[in-house]
Amino acid sequence: MAPRSGSYAPAALDPLIPGTGSPEKLELGNLGGSGVEKQVVKGGLSIVTASIFLAGEMAGSGVLALPFAILGTGWTGLILIFLFTVNSLYSGTRLGLCWVMLEERYEEFRGQVRDPYPSIGEKAVGRWGRIVSLVAISITLYGGGCVFIVLIAQLLGSLVAAAGYHMTLCVWMVIVAAFLTPLTWAGTPKDFWPIAVGALITTVAACLIIMVQIVIDSRSLEEDIRYPAPSVDGFFKAFGSIMFAFAGASTFPTIQADMKDRNKFNYAAIIAIAILFLIYFPMATVGYFSLGDLVQDNIVLSMSDGWQRVVVEIMLLLHLVTAYPIITNPPAQMFEELLNIPSDFNWKRCVFRSCSVMMLLFIAESVPSFGSILNLVGGSTVTLLTFIFPPYFYMRLCDASIGQKQWRERKLPVWERVYCWVLIVIGIAGGACATFNAIRDIVGTSLSVPCYLMSADSNITISASH
């Protein structure tokens, strides 16, 4: 690929807060002795802010399914959560090192880049790496955005119905899409860092309330708590559920590209994964041991009625609203790059992103039973982006440095190369398992009629997950 011109990418990232002046670059010596000047951008994301972005984007509603997932594995499922934490940490940090290597070797990647993940793929394996990465990211994140529209509509409908006012889910989705559209107009993650803070805070608060209420509810149970024996089928289901709970690597390079010092991304990844573990492990433990086989696939449904459950639903609603622009931002930036839309705030960006939301709304209205279909495509794309591509691209980029005197040589020890291949095999197995389960669900159920073909008094119950 020929170096891209600077017409679409400014010399430095925009300031964190609009209107605070022009961004500046600081030269801080050589990068690891490679002869490449290390650039730090004023106004970029700090380590803490970047870690909040990562944790806020990854800690989605998938955490609500973890207690039910452990039901099929017993306490050994908690070990599985720990192993996935370690694997996700390694995979995320390798992806960060891939971007560092690109900055070391290619000057065009030292400014603002709106398609970092596909760029890593192209430099690692060639043109097909860019294409497959772009398609996988678009399906995963835009698909997740579509489900977010459905879930937000469900929560709003449930809360308003409690006040005695009822509207169909199809109508609520239109209202939700109209509300979410302006939130997507921000340029890059650094432009809406308060949103990331809100996404993480609401998730943590909701999980704390759930755990406390579940413990209280378990003490008033009249029947004994039973724990089903682990099964092979339960293990594979738990494998898929836990894997999706750690999905989100496709946004890692986009957030790294907005950091003040991109070489410190690994620190942000470590903090983010640690936060996830501190959320996931207690939730799975409390839900499983407090309720046993009484736990439902959505832990919120296992809570008793009351103000606590209403507060949790509001918190989850706030999380979905705040996380929506984060997950739809990376594919938006990539398509804007392809369409030569300027990176500064302009009407073309607003029109494109508004049309994108309308497209997702049309898909949600056309296929209300979207959960199984999303699991089908997500089972392959999420696996590629999280467990297969990061270690594979990392090995290829490291191997490419051998014999290149102008690049910093990076030789992988045998143990690390073996571990990379283990991650790839785990990803392939988990993706195949998730895909099989999704196909089985689709075959076993019939798709709903599109909203625009239903009668006005029809209502829909949709099951979807993130």
Summarize the structure.
The protein has 466 residues and is mainly alpha-helical. It contains 14 helices and two strands; from the N terminus they run ββαααααααααααααα.
Describe this structure in words.
This protein has 466 residues and is mostly helical. It has helices spanning 47-58, 66-71, 76-105, 116-125, 127-162, 169-180, 193-219, 232-245, 252-256, 265-291, 307-338, 347-366, 371-400, 414-444; strands at 25-30, 37-41.
The major beta sheet can be summarized as: 2 strands, antiparallel
- Terminal Cα separation, in Å? 35 Å
Mean pLDDT figure: 77
Task: Report the radius of gyration as a whole number of Å.
Answer: 22 Å
Please state the structural category: mainly alpha
Identify low-pLDDT runs: 1-40, 461-466
How many E strands? 2
Order of helices and strands: EEHHHHHHHHHHHHHH
Strand content: under 5%
Per DSSP, the total helix count is 14
Order of strands across the biggest sheet? Answer: 1-2
List the quaternary state of the chains: single chain
Roughly how much helix do the residues carry, as a percent range? 55-70%
Shape: globular
Mind sketching the topology for me?
Blueprint: E1 25-30, E2 37-41, H1 47-58, H2 66-71, H3 76-105, H4 116-125, H5 127-162, H6 169-180, H7 193-219, H8 232-245, H9 252-256, H10 265-291, H11 307-338, H12 347-366, H13 371-400, H14 414-444
Antiparallel strand pairs: 1-2
Helix pairs in contact: 1-7, 1-10, 3-8, 3-10, 3-13, 4-5, 4-13, 5-6, 5-11, 5-12, 5-13, 6-12, 7-10, 7-11, 8-14, 13-14
